[in-house]
Amino acid sequence: MSWQLGDVPVATDSVVTFVPTDGSDPVLFDAATARLHRLAGPSATVWAAIDGSRTMADVIDLVSALHRIEVVATAADIETTLERLRTLGVLRVARSPRRR
Amino acid sequence: MNPPPVSDAVHSAGPFRVAERDVVVRTSCVDFAALVSEVFVDLRRGPGDAPSTSTIEFLVVAVAEPEPHWAIWRDGEACELELREDAVLVQLQWELNRLVIERYRAVVHSGAVAIDGRVVLLAGRSHSGKTTLTGTLCAHYGGEYLTDEAASLDEEGRVRPYPRPLGLRPTSPLWSAAAWASAGAVRFLPEEQLVPVSRLGGPVGRAPRWPGLVVFPHFRSGSSLSITPLTQADAIERLAHLTPGLVRHGAEVFRRLMRLVTSTVSIDVAYGDSEAAAQCVVEAVHRARGAS
Predict the structure, then answer these.
(1) CA nearest B203: which of B146, B150, B129?
(2) pLDDT at B5
(3) Which architecture does CATH list for B107-163+204-291?
(4) In what order do the strands lie in the sheet containing B11-18?
(5) SS3 B46
(6) Contact B233 A36 (CB under 8 A)
(7) What are the chain A neighbours of B262 within 8 Å (beta carbons)?
(8) Best residue in A12, A13, A22, A37 for a mutation probing chain B (most B CBs within 10 Å)
(9) Residue A61: which residues within 8 A CB-CB, separation 6 or more?
(10) Positions of chain B with pLDDT lower than 70, given as ranges
(11) Residues B40, B122, B79, B184: is their CA dihedral positive or negative?
């Protein structure tokens, strides 16, 4: 799937997110499949930026700012990460009329 | 196939209290009734407990034809109809475990012992050494026994008592405690024996307790003691694999595991000497209590 900057990534309804209080990796539980997904590195960062209202462009801006990286350098990686999460079934895309 | 008439099962044991229900075992064999009374003594309904609104009845009968075997029925429904004599007691134990798993959603494959009022969960697969460590903590370190194999977490996050007997093998350092069976009962006892913790001298818990420490034991003969702290992410991944109710009851059970790992400390304990490991677990639960 090709992501658009105005797409809004949204966690799937069946997903419960565990954010450990000791700083270790977030763990997702998908009740629909009874599978666990441990998020490390960029996946964890991207997941934390997804709040159900931010567009892909917002997520790129946020992650770039957090890590002080050029937007152009992170966009492709973030799209890859979003697509991986979508393929796992823990993320769906909501089309937004908003455009960058 | 219809169950045999109850009049064929004139001997009984119980009532036991399992998952808040009364359980009675009726059997055609006087020796088996005596053995069940002895083995499940820690599950007996307490004198102050009111009877439950309904009673689960197991019929356990010896069948002579065409070949001698045993059969177990639960409330008129067949559980197992082709059992060898030396498998019938273990099967009955499994049927009691099933009552716990059916009744409660968040049941972890784990032992549970309260040390100074805080529960140590000893979670792991079969042969991981959790039963040996559970028994050692109760027999030699004053631990209050809550359960083995099936530790259920209630809605508030406490661990419920289910003081089933420990399954001990000849290689267990606690095996000498298993040499208690009366002569008439020996034929029912397979190589793994079921030993009530009260026979080991440990106190038996009757009330839910708050968890304080999660231990993932790994027994390896001759290995030295090794303690590794686990992150919450590590702990919840391991617990999820040891919680069969996660598949059926999903999010609710996962949230209870989340609460468990964020409210406790989790450690991995590799050991070859159960006494040294038990001592270390007692120290760890005291440290965890001090830190909370």
Answers:
(1) B146
(2) 63
(3) Alpha-Beta Complex (3.90)
(4) B11-18, B21-27, B55-63, B69-74, B77-83
(5) coil
(6) no
(7) 20-21
(8) A22
(9) A71
(10) 1-9, 178-185, 291-292
(11) negative
> Which of B239, B254, B255, B263 to mutate to test binding with chain A, by most A CBs within 10 Å of its CB?
B254
Domains and CATH numbers, chain A: 8-92 (1.10.10)
Count of CB atoms situated within 10 Å of the CB of B194: 23
Q: Check residue A100 and give its pLDDT.
A: 45
Report the distance separating Cα B164 and Cα B274, nearest Å: 21
User: Residue by residue, what is the 3-state secondary structure of A3-71?
Assistant: CCCCCEEEECCCEEEECCCCCCCCEEEECCCCEEEECCCHHHHHHHHCCCCCCHHHHHHHHHHHHCCCH
- CA dist., res. B115 & res. B215, Å (int): 13
Cis peptide before B51 (omega within 30 of 0): no
Lowest mean pLDDT among A21-35, A67-81, B109-123: A67-81
Give the residue from B8, B292, B53, B18 showing the smallest Cα distance to B165. Answer: B18
Partner-chain residue, chosen from A18, A27, A31, that has the shortest CB–CB distance to B250: A31
Q: Which chain A residues have a beta carbon less than 8 Å from that of B251? A: 14, 16, 29, 31
Interface of B with A (CB under 8 A): 231-234, 236-237, 240, 246-247, 250-251, 254-255, 258, 261-262
Burial class, B252, CB count within 10 angstroms (exposed 0-12 / middle 13-18 / buried 19+): middle
Could you tell me the two tokens for B194? 């079921």
Of B99 and A99, which is predicted with more confidence? Answer: B99
Give the closest-approach CA distance of B64 to chain A in angstroms: 45
Measuring CA to CA, how many Å separate B24 from each of B3, B9, B127? 16, 12, 30
Please check whether residue B121 is in contact with residue B136, taking contact to mean a CB–CB distance below 8 angstroms: no
Query: With an 8 Å Cβ cutoff, are B251 and A14 in contact?
Result: yes
pLDDT at B236: 98
Say if CB B165 and CB B196 are below 8 A apart.
Answer: yes
The domain spans of chain B are 7-103, 107-163+204-291
